[in-house]
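In this supplementary section we document a worked example of the pipeline. Step one takes a protein sequence of length 296 as its only input; no multiple sequence alignment statistics are reported here. Step two produces a three-dimensional model, which step three serialises into structure tokens for compact storage. The input and output of this example are shown verbatim.
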Amino acid sequence: MATHMKQIVITSIVLCLAGASSALAQSAASAAACDSVLRAARVDSVPVTARAYLTRQDSDVLPARVRLLLTEAILSRFETPKPLQLQVFSAAPAQMRSLRRETLVGDSLAIRAPVVYGWYAFPLRRNGTVGQVVPMTPSMVPGFDEGVAAAIKATVADTILVMLGRALDQDSLMLDFRISTEPEDSRLRVPSATVFAAMFPRLRLVDARTVGPVPLAKYPQDEIDGGADGEALLRVVVDGSGAAVIPTIEILHATSRAFGFEAAMALARYHFTPAHIGACSVPQVVLVPFWFSLRP
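The serialised model returned by step three reads:
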């Protein structure tokens, strides 16, 4: 069976002002004004490709044929929401110097494009069924996560899934399915499949920034005996109120699981000045580095 690479050209894209400040959200007139501001802030458009990655959750290698056939089965059933309501903007580069946070003075304008990113976990069973689909990192795109979950669940009607299940060496296998318009993710070490191609608008905005005293991450108790320095880099969406959206916290890199966990616990307590265009706040991905040391 030929590999199916689903290619959809999105022609209907809407920039959604989600997570606006409470004062703006309470006023329909203000919301309309912010819609106008978003349109006026548009600089140009850039081509993007949404890619899908299917991996085992235990980091073992999924046989290529299983990965290709199951990915094809899911994508053949997935319908991209139309219009595609974009509301989360891409991240600024991680601000660090040898993984020590730099202090920025004043705001600076940047040109950012929206992003779509979702991570979903589900079990594939030997009897050819799939279990509950859990959004590990919600995309925050209306209808998108529901569409992915529905596509995964619909594969139970595919005879290919029964064949794949029988090929498993265990009763149930936990899988991760990611869809992203961000650059190729080298951490996953598997080929991607194309979900859709589109032109995303780029806007000029002020990036989200930490504000107030930054909570310190505790040096992990489990690492004290070794006493080595540690580091972590986390990804999170900051909403229009300046709060970290807890379900979107993801550890991109960590010296150990313990360092990553303590970094995530600290990040959940962070406060931000949200990304904004004038007085209009917009959600944005933020990359946050952490550095751990017992040295004075």
